[in-house]
Design a protein that fits this description.
This is Acyltransferase. The protein is 71% helix and 0% strand. It is mostly helical. It has one domain. The chain starts with a helix and ends with a helix.
């Protein structure tokens, strides 16, 4: 099971050891970038607010699952999925609708999204390896 977890970049969640702990960020980036093709398909078929909304819901679902179902899911850093979706949405909004972007409290939204992750990071940083 260990090599499967490493191959799928799920070494932080699945049991079986970690080939190199320092690669945790690569696995997080890999999983976050899986959202991008989904967002692009939704943007092209529907519209960009829907794409950002669906990707944000995926991040929120990850946060809820980690909080309510299995604390090991915090190790996938689900709030980063939400932050990625919102950052992509902010970039699109600033380019396409600067009038709307000027009225959105981006800093407050970012702080609310980062709060769940900052709470769990303290416990992850303190755990023995």
């Amino acid at each position: 099971m260990g090599w499967i977890a490493n191959f799928l970049l799920l070494q932080e969640v699945l049991p079986g050891g970690n080939a190199a702990y320092t690669f945790w960020s690569i696995s997080i980036e890999y999983h976050i970038y899986l959202l991008l093709p989904l967002m692009l398909v939704l943007w092209r078929r529907i519209n960009w607010p829907t794409a950002v909304g669906v990707a944000s819901l995926i991040g929120l679902a990850g946060i809820a699952a980690a909080a309510l179902l299995d604390s090991r899911l915090w190790q996938l850093y689900p709030s980063y999925y939400l932050l990625f979706a919102l950052a992509a949405g902010a970039c699109i909004c600033v380019r396409r609708r600067p009038d709307v972007a000027a009225r959105i409290p981006w800093r407050a939204i970012g702080a609310m999204c980062a709060a769940p992750q900052s709470q769990c990071c303290g416990s992850l940083a303190m755990r023995p390896r």
